[in-house]
Recover the amino acids of this structure.
């Protein structure tokens, strides 16, 4: 098993910076997801790991071996990788077995061993017996599995996946996502997975690295990063969030004329603006609230049924903001004037956003 | 990797590295020969016996009417009407084939292609065999042919017939790509079928029609074989035949030939520029990109009349020349009678017994195969360096070679031939008179064809396919061999076949460059027709046409066997 150490990677295209001082470690055997919006630099970082792009500065180590450094650049063919491409990139002039055999033949393996390894790889992805199938005869899901089998067949040190599920329709996507995760855990192969879909990232990862405009803005387990986002941007990228702008005067957190009940980290100095993040499902109605919750009069403006959840858009005049509240749709629907509660535990206070990087 | 494994992989890489080296040196030779030829052509036109640099040849060409102005006017007098006639005829036939319910419409392409497959000068000779005094027409109908065998009208007719294929292909492609909804909307709006044709179909096809006119114009300007055999006997000189005369008939005047070649080359380049402008300005909004079901125009009660007219004309035009060449090739003598009593295979036996003809056959096959292989090799090298390397001097060189091959393809064969004579007769590399100079000429003239088709196909191959190869552990050369080349296969076959055929048919550069020892079949046939030896010329023509047709069928067969999508 191989850990990947990424140190101070910079990359620019012409004058356009794409990655800025990105450092992170992928632990041996874990599945790390590079998550980000389009243009965040996640695919570029993956291609740098693959050796398909060269970083302008910084280094990458696979285990003890430097594959990209100041004077070192190991080309992709000598990095010992498996990679699943977004388009799958299955070679259309070769059949399924031909696609899998190329890397093995390159390693000088014998005929019998190649056949056996292909057999095993196809079995692993549930395509046993499909050796002689032409690529264009396969469905999208089957092509995806062949791409996975091809990436694994040479027993690579590291598996890279570039949005491998984005070309599939929703149901198949969830099924294959779970299969990829199970397979990765069974093989224990160090895996870097790129996606723009936060649900996919939360479901599949050991850890998530969130990139925003070429910078690493969050790194941690899905649980930690979702529950304790380090910034309002991260909170909003990973799911719906109410973000309030409040002021910390040293003794109370004030918004409009009201005081919000919250734990303010000691690192925040008095007299600063802060962001307050509240997930919609952590808001509740006053009649069900705990004692330490702050209660405000609210007006229901819109109601959306989202399936299991029902979402309310509320005007809260005392705070001068609009809040979103979500509860199980099995609860009776409400309307008109209501009272909304902000439980102390639901409020997460974050340092003020740096100018320019706020919002989502 | 073990030591043995390393040795194995080096050995496996060797032929590839060798091939890459050959490709690189071929590209270098191509560039060097173009530069040298261009320079020598420029120098020759500014050279007089009295001084190394002089404007005298230029002044003479401009002031003496027979030198430049007369031939130029004659060339234009041919090019304009032929361009218009061929576009009208080819476009109309394309419409019949694609949009009407003409019986057997899809076979029209084969009928239009046949007169183009036959080299121009052989089509011209067939015209003479058909319509001259004592020709086939007279033998069949008993009266002299009402059609002139030589002169202006004959040239226009033969050229139109020979070049009709281009408008046909361009217009047919345009008609197939146009969104049928545009015409259906006009029908719904109340226009009759004829009005739809005039108001919608033809205006939509305008880019294709304009491109046809330009393309045919360019081909007429550079055509040598047809005016040489049909015009020279009546004193009708074009730019090409005048250059040929100045460069081959004593007293030689290479300076004047060079000045005329400048002009001819300049015309070709201007037309090329106009074509590129036209392509760049083409709107894509008329194209839907889908293979669409077109509503076919029903010819109704005109259907059979149209069929008789179209098929009668097309079959006569396509088959009569071939039949004439075939018949004359079997005769024991030209003009002595056509009956079975006069039939003999002696002309074909000559191919086996005469040293000269055997050599010509061998030269033709070797030159065609060699230039096809080299041009394709160059095309792969140029396309890969131009498209797949990060910006750098090597990539810029690739782009330069791409442009050079394109321009060289657009230049008339006589201009290329003259430049090569000037650059390689005597001096430090006396290749003149050898097959090597012909090989160089063919590669120069036709590698543009290869580069275009290979580059277009390479552009369609997604780069992730190659990245996947690198990730799987393949070196650059192995990615090229294992992934890129197999995916390029259709373009490679196409390039090999096209260059082979073009090289077999080539006469305009060959007429200047071939001599004893380096004859080709085309050259031998051309000389026979010039001497009036129609029987031997026809036999050689039949062999060439068979060679070309065989190559075409082989190419089709290979193309069908290996078709792979690259999406």
């Amino acid at each position: 098993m191989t850990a990947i150490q990424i140190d101070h990677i910079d990359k620019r295209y012409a004058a356009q910076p794409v990655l800025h001082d990105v450092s992170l470690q992928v632990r041996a055997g874990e599945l790390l997801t590079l998550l980000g919006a389009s243009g965040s630099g996640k695919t570029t970082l993956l291609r740098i790991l693959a050796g398909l792009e060269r970083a302008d500065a910084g280094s990458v180590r696979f285990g003890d071996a430097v594959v990209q450094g100041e004077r070192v650049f190991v080309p992709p063919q000598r990095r010992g990788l498996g990679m699943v491409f977004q388009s799958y990139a299955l070679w259309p002039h070769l059949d399924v077995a031909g696609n899998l055999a190329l890397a093995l033949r390159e390693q000088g393996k014998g005929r019998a061993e190649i056949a056996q390894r292909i057999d095993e790889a196809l079995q692993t992805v549930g395509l046993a017996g499909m050796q002689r199938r032409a690529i264009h005869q396969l469905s999208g899901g089957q092509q995806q599995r062949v791409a996975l089998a091809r990436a694994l067949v040479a027993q690579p040190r590291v598996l890279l996946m570039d949005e491998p599920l984005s070309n599939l329709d929703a149901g198949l996507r969830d099924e294959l996502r779970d299969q990829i995760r199970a397979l990765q855990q069974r093989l224990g192969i160090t895996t870097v997975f790129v996606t723009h879909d936060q649900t996919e990232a939360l479901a599949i990862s050991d850890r998530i690295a969130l990139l925003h405009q070429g910078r690493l803005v969050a790194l941690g387990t899905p649980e930690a990063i979702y529950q304790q986002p380090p910034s309002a941007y991260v909170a909003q990228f990973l799911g719906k969030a109410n973000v309030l702008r409040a002021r910390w005067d040293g003794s109370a957190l004030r918004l409009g004329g009201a005081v919000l009940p919250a734990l303010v980290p000691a690192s925040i100095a008095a007299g600063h603006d802060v962001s307050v993040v509240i997930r919609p499902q952590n808001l509740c109605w006053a009649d069900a609230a705990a004692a330490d919750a702050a209660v405000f009069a609210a007006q229901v403006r819109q109601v959306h049924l989202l399936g299991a959840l029902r979402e309310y858009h509320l005007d809260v005049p005392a705070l001068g903001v609009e809040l979103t509240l979500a509860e199980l749709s099995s609860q009776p629907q409400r309307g008109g004037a209501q009272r909304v509660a902000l439980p102390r535990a639901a409020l997460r206070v974050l340092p003020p956003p740096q100018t320019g990087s706020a919002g989502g | 990797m073990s030591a043995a494994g390393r040795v194995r992989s080096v050995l496996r890489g060797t032929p590839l590295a060798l091939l890459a080296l050959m490709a690189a040196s071929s590209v270098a030779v191509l560039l060097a020969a173009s530069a040298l030829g261009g320079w020598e052509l420029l120098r020759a036109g500014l050279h007089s016996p009295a001084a190394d640099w002089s404007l005298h040849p230029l002044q003479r060409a401009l002031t003496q009417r027979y030198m430049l102005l007369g031939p130029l006017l004659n060339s234009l007098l041919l090019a304009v009407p032929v361009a218009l006639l061929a576009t009208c005829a080819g476009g109309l036939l394309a419409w019949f084939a694609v949009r009407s319910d003409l019986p057997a419409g899809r076979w029209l392409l084969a009928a239009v292609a046949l007169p183009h497959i036959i080299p121009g000068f052989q089509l011209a000779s067939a015209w003479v065999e058909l319509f001259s005094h004592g020709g086939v027409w007279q033998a069949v109908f008993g009266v002299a042919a009402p059609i002139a065998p030589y002169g202006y009208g004959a040239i226009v007719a033969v050229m139109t017939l020979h070049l009709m294929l281009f408008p046909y292909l361009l217009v047919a492609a345009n008609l197939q790509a146009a969104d049928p909804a545009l015409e259906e909307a006009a029908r719904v709006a109340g226009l009759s079928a004829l009005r739809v044709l005039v108001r919608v179909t033809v205006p939509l096809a305008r880019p294709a029609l304009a491109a046809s006119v330009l393309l045919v114009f360019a081909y007429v300007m550079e055509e040598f074989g047809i005016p040489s055999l049909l015009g020279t006997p009546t004193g009708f000189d074009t730019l090409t035949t005048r250059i040929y005369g100045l460069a081959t008939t004593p007293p030689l005047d290479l300076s004047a030939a060079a000045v005329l070649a400048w002009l001819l080359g300049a015309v070709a380049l201007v037309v090329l520029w106009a074509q590129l402008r036209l392509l760049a300005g083409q709107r894509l909004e008329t194209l839907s990109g889908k293979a669409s079901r077109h509503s076919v125009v029903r010819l109704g009660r005109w259907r059979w009349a149209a069929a008789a007219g179209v098929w009668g004309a097309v079959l006569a035009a396509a088959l009569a020349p071939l039949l004439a060449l075939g018949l004359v090739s079997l005769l024991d003598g030209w003009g002595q009678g056509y009956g079975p009593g006069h039939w003999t295979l002696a002309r074909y036996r000559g191919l086996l017994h005469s040293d000269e003809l055997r050599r010509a056959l061998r030269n033709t096959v070797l030159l065609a195969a060699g230039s096809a292989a080299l041009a394709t090799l160059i095309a792969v090298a140029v396309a890969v360096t131009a498209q797949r390397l990060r910006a750098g001097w090597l990539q810029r060189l690739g782009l330069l070679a791409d442009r050079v091959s394109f321009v060289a393809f657009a230049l008339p064969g006589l201009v290329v031939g003259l430049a090569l004579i000037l650059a390689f007769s005597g001096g430090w590399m006396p290749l003149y008179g050898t097959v090597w100079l012909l090989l160089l000429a063919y590669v120069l003239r036709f590698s543009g064809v290869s580069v275009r088709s290979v580059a277009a196909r390479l552009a369609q191959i997604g780069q992730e396919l190659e990245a996947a190869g690198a990730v799987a552990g393949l070196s650059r050369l192995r990615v090229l061999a294992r992934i890129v080349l197999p995916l390029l296969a259709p373009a490679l076959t196409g390039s090999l076949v096209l260059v082979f055929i073009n090289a077999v048919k080539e006469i305009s550069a060959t007429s200047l460059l071939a001599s004893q020892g380096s004859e080709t079949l085309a050259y031998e046939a051309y000389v026979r027709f010039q001497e009036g030896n129609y029987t031997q010329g026809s036999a050689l023509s039949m062999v060439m046409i068979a060679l070309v047709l065989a190559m075409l069928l082989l190419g089709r067969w290979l193309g069908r066997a290996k078709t792979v999508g690259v999406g």
Remarks:
- The longest strand of chain A covers residues 294-305.
